[in-house]
Amino acid sequence: MRKFIFLIYVWLIVFNWGKAWSLIEVDITRGNLNPLPLAVSPLSVDQNSKEKFKDLLKLEDIGVEISKVVENNLRQSGLFNPLDTKAFLQKPDIAHVKPRFEDWALIKAQALITGEVKIVDEKLRVEFRLWDVLAGKEIMALAFTTVSENWRRVGHIITDKVYQRLTGEKGYFDTRIIYVAEEGLKTSRIKKLAIMDQDGFNTKYLTLGNELVLTPRFNPTNQMVTYLSYFKNLPRVYLLDIETGIQEVVGDFPGMTFAPRFSPDGKKIIMSFAKDGNSDIYTMDLESREVEKITNHPSIDTSPSYSPDGKYICFNSDRSGYQQIYVMRSDGSKVKRISFGNGLYGTPVWSPRGDLIAFTKLHKGKFYIGVMRTDGTGERLLTENYYQEAPSWSPNGRVLIFYRETKSDSAGKGFSAKLWSIDLTGYNERMVKTETDASDPSWSSLLTD
Amino acid sequence: MSLNKIFRNTLLVIFASILLSACAVKTTGKMQGDVYTGKDTVEYLASGVPDRVFFATNETVLTTASRETLRKQASWLRKNSKINVVLEGHADERGTREYNLALGERRANAAKDYLMTYGISGNRISVISYGKERPVDSGSNPLAWSKNRRSVTVKAN
Fold first, then answer.
1. Which of A273, A360, B27, B81 could pair with A347 as two cysteines, CB 3.0-4.6 Å apart?
2. pLDDT digits over A315-332, tens only?
3. Which of B62, B94, B96 to mutate to test the interface with A (most CBs of A within 10 A)?
4. CA of B102 to nearest chain A CA: how many angstroms apart?
5. Coil, strand or helix: which one is A96?
6. What residues of B are in contact with residue A272 (Cβ under 8 Å)?
7. What does pTM read for this prediction?
8. What is the rounded distance in angstroms from the CA atom of residue B151 to the CA atom of residue B157?
């Protein structure tokens, strides 16, 4: 599925050869107050290729631009501290062939990324190497060829490879975010579906804003999206293929369907259906179109999310009198409340690693994004604010993206809605750049594994 | 004896009245408890027939005032039997989006059920929830939130 969208051919030249024991290790499970200093040397480009890319992409120096993508990604992760390029002593082309490790050690770089960009048959060919400065050896080398418009993705793929090599876990940089772009007055907000790269670039709008749209979510296995649309003033769950633009209503329900999400295998949609003042959870198989009722309770049951093995579902219910988080088997049996702290709990989302459930908590007029183990123990609040909700996991289960709103007066002055991300340690909180105000973010899977 | 007893009784009365005033529903000009009672955003379906009812935080129960409004709507609907209505349920901004959609649906249905008990056919009433998407007051304060927790009856034809 992914292949026909982006033609990227990855060749492994040398991968982790000799199993050299690297001295560099980054622990991503703790708050990282001393991010690893490393140098991202601008990728070298020969004069001929530079001119051609200038014509094709209107970029002054494509090598510099790709390394900036890598540098920015690494900095945003909070785990790495990319050093100032002005301090670099060695030229990019020479560093890529044979780095003088003493020079790089002098500026306190522990790792070095070098590379080379070429034009080959009108395509972009990039080769990069990761060096352990202290051990004085190469620890990874890779080359890709792709259509030149994909140059930013090359930067993301390089970051993913470096992240994986240094932390031991898969990255999350070659990914996209789907979200709701917002404009206009708070009382008559115009909302559009939008999609962008994880770092805020290449924004595309998928709907025109004629009808209200909410809560888009990616299929973890392909380029489909499910979301809520008020098309013809009938709030229903829709399915959208973001490549073809074809969309359809999910199921034939005589009332509002909402809070959709895909099953981990991408074959079902789980959602709420509201009728006569009662919301219950249903699934629909996308192939057979078979609808199954999962909860049957006079309370509000909503915000369902599957465990990554598909065996369990966490969801939000007010059956105790107030909004709390519950877990049940995927057939609806063995319902168990797991949130017992003070306050109200909403929007549970199961981590792709399976170990944690992220949630929104409202307590004493403040909103928190937090995580708890799947049995409800070990609750940890990561961030507190006036208003924030709707966390979505990075594909490696290390970072959450959510949205935050600010206070406003009766004329709506002061109001804003923005995307924010925070890692599991709670230390690395950042605003995610968007062209407009934004809400309801959902993180895609890695586009290339 | 008596002085002591009078003194003690007086103390008790004072104490009780303090207790009572503490328990009494806090009333500002436009709210009772946290239910909106003012007329600020209210429109009229016909003379003397307000179009909306208001709810307490996280509640879907109709207040006495709400029931009175809905009875007026019901008698207006009985007199105008060709008019159909849409009940639009809303929540304030202090809740998660998905739960608020369910809450708005439940509020509008509470109003629908009441209209039906006063003889209005369910076929004439449809229901839509906007959750927290369409506030009437943009303010981030309890009074604004109380205006936004509402079910609004709108003519459908």
1. A360
2. 999 999 999 999 999 999
3. B96
4. 6
5. helix
6. 98, 101-102
7. 0.90
8. 18
